[in-house]
Amino acid sequence: MNYKYFPHTDADVQQMLGRCGLKHIDDLYADIPEQLLFKGDYDLPEAMSEHEVRTFMASLGKRNETFRALVGAGWYDHYSPAVAQNIIERSEFLTSYTPYQAEVSQGTLQYIFEYQSMMAMLTGMEVSNASMYDGATATAEAMMMTVAAAKKRNTVLVSATLNPAVRRVVDTYAKFHGINVETIEAIDGVTSREAMEKRLEQGDVAGIIVAAPNFYGIVEDFTGWADAIHNAKALMVMNCPASALGVLKTPAAWGADVAVGDAQSLGIPLCYGGPSLGYMCTTKKLIRRLPGRIVGATTDADGRRAFVLTLQAREQHIRREKATSNICSNQSLMALYVTVYLALMGPQGLSEVNSSSYANAHYLADRLTDTGYFELTYPTKPFLNEMLMTVDDAIDIDALQEALRNQGWLLGLKLDDHKLLLCATETCNREDLDNVVQMVNIECQRQKQEEAL
Question: Choosing a second label site near 215 at 20 to 30 A (CA), which of 6, 27, 52, 121?
């Protein structure tokens, strides 16, 4: 049986307090100002039996509205194998804390090592850290890496096609670290190489951050970018949804120095905005600039294979003042989830997931275009999973989305009055998409008729 927690008896509590030299649990909060302490009574229900608790929680769950999502924008509805959920619920895995005691943490260290190995293979990079909180903070950390490596240069260029939510986190980190962030303009949905090279010529650039696929789902061509960036003594950072790397050219193949992004697309369920998982991979040359922990494989005194934390001195011990950040705990439970998912899917499974998602996204785009109310905003650009569509001027996107919500569907992300970012993954089938298009067509026709009246 899996135990998610172990309740403490009064004797347990007193024993722990005694070890700390305290008499009462309130002594643990002695440093908190009196005016900040809550002194009222907690509004807690009467005690219930297990059956009553289950019934009560089930009644709360029924109040939730459940939707099918045709929204991407950094979060993707991919199938989650039941075995992955079961494994991460085992009591020995339900923690994210750093396993400093290697001799009693071999299981945790091993799965983190396996995670690092898989992410290195997926990105083509030489080194992976042991995961980060999410793709946005991983990208911000990469920005700081480039500045730390450049030393005297303080500007980072960010493509306009990077996810705006990620960009806001990058800007926040930059503000409080004194880093100058500038935007590389986009032309026809892709990053302008001409604008990038022109800015490089002006100097003071430590790094450049691009996205693949970008915010609009477009797969950009970065041929020759790495050479231009490296000739300017800058570093190239690529932000990629992890699942897409199962079929796309790897960041290493593009010549990138750092690969970052969100690994939520590797089977982690969508649930109220989280949890997520950030990955960060780089070259051996930059390993000492890499934030977070790294697990390495070695042999013990008896010659047996063993796993340990390595390069800890960078931020947790004697050299912590030279670290770009201090990440001691992270999303290791989600790293385990991703490890199980990748082990189950394998290269072929990951390829099939992307092939199915690609086919569904293109099918949805074609069917919506057939209605006469939609057209691809960038029709000549290759896209994966999601696409930006321009909606007829007469259509109220808010009303359209509301009509679909009433039918249990979340129809894309509205970018402006005439732009809708849509996504379809392998969790949809053709019947689902046909039904959605039919509902969209009916609502658009209704709006057109009202306009005519």
Answer: 121
Provide the sign of the torsion angle of the four alpha carbons 252, 223, 220, 158, taken in this order. positive
Reported as a single tens digit per residue, the pLDDT across 58-102 is: 999 999 888 999 999 999 999 999 999 899 888 888 876 667 788
- Two structure tokens written together for 34: 């009196």
Paired tokens of 63: 């109040």
**The Cα angle at residue 41 between residues 37 and 47, in degrees rounded to 5:** 130
252-266, 300-314, 414-428: which has the minimum mean pLDDT? 300-314
Lateral strand order in the sheet of 155-159 = 127-128, 278-282, 258-262, 235-239, 205-211, 155-159, 180-184
Tell me the pLDDT of the chain averaged across its residues. 92
- CA–chain centroid gap for 367, Å, is 30
Name the residue among 332, 349, 191 with its Cα closest to residue 263.
Answer: 332
- Give the torsion sign (CA, 237, 242, 244, 247): positive
Is the separation of the CB atoms in 416 and 451 below 8 Å? no
All residues at 6 or more sequence positions from 52 whose CB lies less than 8 Å from its CB, including other chains: none
How far from the centroid of its chain's Cα atoms is residue 426's Cα? 19
User: Mapping DSSP to helix (H, G, I), strand (E, B) and coil, where does residue 323 land?
Assistant: coil
Domains, the chain, ranges and CATH? 82-341 (3.40.640.10), 347-452 (3.90.1150.10)
Per DSSP, helices labelled H in 151-201 are 164-177, 193-201
pTM for the complete prediction? Answer: 0.87
- Would you state the structure tokens that stand for residue 252, as one six-digit string? 């290493």
Exposure string over 389-424, b if 16+ CB within 10 A, otherwise e: bbbeeebbbeebbebbeeeebebbbebeeebbbbbb
Summarised one tens digit per residue, pLDDT across range 271-329 is 877 789 999 999 999 998 888 888 999 999 999 999 998 876 555 555 666 666 766 66
- Look at 98-102, 192-196, 222-226, 282-286 and tell me which has the smallest mean pLDDT: 98-102
Cβ(421)–Cβ(415) below 8 Å: yes
d(CA 338, CA 361): 24
Which residue's entry shows tokens 């051996």?
284
Taking only the tens place, the pLDDT of each residue in 124-155 is 999 999 888 899 999 999 999 999 999 899 99
Rounded CA-CA distance 331/279 in Å is: 10
Q: Where are the alpha helices (DSSP H) in 151-269?
A: 164-177, 193-201, 225-231, 251-254
